[in-house]
Design goal:
globular; about 75% helix; Proton glutamate symport protein; two-stranded antiparallel ribbon; mainly alpha
Length: about 450
């Protein structure tokens, strides 16, 4: 057997890191008591090492890994969008891309929240549940739709990049790229420079991806060293219902839409989404996962650069199918816990509010809870009910993010197919993109 065949794939390494992290986190819970001290002593001296191991080593390494991913987001989005828009020969194509992308994102969000409410009413997760809580939740005020539109246009693009305001970065990058396309030779010369920068950034993505198994290990170890089984017990019905609807939407809804609108094999897409979903599950951030999502769409799914550079950053900002599912189930759950009967009209209002809020509140910190607060207020449910579900929301947030980025890639494939920008040979090739995952580290290994 050759040396290359003995090497584990990146997906296998990430799974191993995730499993080892979960086991390590569980063992740490057994080793530490409630005060954070070890249950054993050395030479008569007791050591309190919980802070050193979990909050120190694991937290530091995990945060460095997430920061390394976030470091790439702004330059990747800006450079990719500029490269994509400056190469557009048909200005009307940009309008088509926007209309198709936003339309599909709104459609999938509406389907998601409808599924969530339907299964919530069928299962009734809040019936007979009484959960005492001392926690409190104060809802932040969401901006008006007019203010959201105004805030999309930056007064200072450099400040927008420094603050990571994705909608403002997208607007500026599109305008910058269109200006380059209209400038002639000067635009072509600058475009060639941006193309080279884009290649380098994608190679940097490869380097970070190869470090993922270690980042995944420490993040999962830290998480599962702090999650108690008793917290899941009281909310088990709600937790597993949300999880079920997330998986159903991610596997069935996306597959039906992809097959129905493109004729492509959805299993091929789902198989190629494994690495990106593992990143999303670990980081709980669509924005932090964006470099990996873009690498997957381009190199594994064959989505053209002019499409992926537009649809994916937009999806990471406004596509919140997973959050919409949480909102739907949580609304039913909180209504049942508080004994409030909602009418059919109320549930229709929940669907409309959650769907429109997924676009209207994009870029607002704590957007998931802000959106849920908006939904609850719309149907006169107590916002304080959010405190009931905060305890288990961390694990669900990880799954929601994986669903969201799968939806982003699904929409990208549909839009690319409709625009003739999908390389079906790459899409159908099970080994597409495998070389790009390890090319940098293989190069480093051979020169050591």
């Amino acid at each position: 057997m050759s040396q290359s065949s003995k090497k584990l794939s990146l997906t296998a390494k990430i799974f191993i890191g995730m499993g080892a992290g979960i086991i390590t986190g569980g063992l740490l819970q057994l080793l530490f008591d409630d005060s954070g001290d070890l249950l054993f002593s050395v030479f008569g001296y007791s050591f309190s090492t919980y802070g050193i191991v979990v909050e120190g080593i694991f937290s530091t390494i995990g945060q460095i890994f997430i920061n390394s991913l976030k470091m790439l987001v702004v330059p990747l989005v800006f450079v990719s969008l500029v490269c994509g828009t400056c190469s557009l020969t048909d200005p009307s194509k940009l309008g088509r891309l926007g209309a198709k992308s936003i339309g599909l994102y709104i459609l999938t969000t509406a389907i998601a929240v409808t599924l969530a409410i339907s299964f919530g009413l069928l299962v009734s997760p809040g019936t007979g549940v009484s959960i005492p809580t001392d926690a409190d939740y104060v809802a932040k005020e969401a901006p008006s739709l007019a203010q959201v539109i105004i805030n999309m246009f930056p007064t200072n693009p450099i400040q927008a990049m420094a603050e990571g305001n994705m909608l403002q970065i997208i607007i500026f990058a599109v305008l910058f790229g269109v200006s380059m396309a209209m400038t002639g030779d000067a635009g072509k010369r600058l475009g060639a420079i941006f193309e080279d920068i884009n290649v380098i950034i994608m190679r940097l993505v490869t380097i970070i991806m190869n470090l993922a198994p270690y980042g995944v290990f420490v993040l999962m170890a830290k998480l599962f060293s702090t999650i108690g089984a008793e917290m899941l017990g009281s909310l088990a019905k709600y937790f597993f219902l949300v999880l079920f609807v997330l998986v159903l939407h991610g596997l069935v809804t996306y597959s039906i839409l992809l097959k129905g609108l493109t004729g492509l094999n959805p299993l091929r897409m789902l198989e190629k989404m494994r690495d990106a979903c593992l990143f999303a599950f670990t980081t709980s951030s669509s924005s932090a996962t964006l470099p990996v999502t873009m690498e997957t769409a381009r190199n594994k799914l064959g989505v053209g650069k002019s499409v992926s550079s537009f649809t994916l950053p937009l999806g990471a900002t406004i596509n919140m199918d997973g959050t919409a599912i949480m909102q739907g189930v949580a609304t039913v759950f909180i209504a049942q816990v508080y004994g409030v009967d909602l009418s059919l009209g109320d549930y229709v209002m929940v669907v409309l509010t959650a769907t429109l809020a997924s676009v209207g509140t994009a870029g607002v910190p704590g957007v998931g809870l802000i959106m849920l607060a908006m939904v609850l207020q719309q149907v006169n449910l107590p916002v304080e009910g959010i405190a009931l579900i905060i305890g288990v929301d961390r694990l669900l947030d990880m799954t929601r993010t994986a669903v969201n980025i799968t939806g982003d890639c699904m929409v990208s494939c549909i839009v690319a197919k409709s625009e003739g920008e999908l390389d079906e040979a790459v899409y159908n090739d099970p080994n597409a993109g495998a070389k790009e995952e390890t090319v940098d580290f293989e190069h480093f290994d051979k020169n050591q």
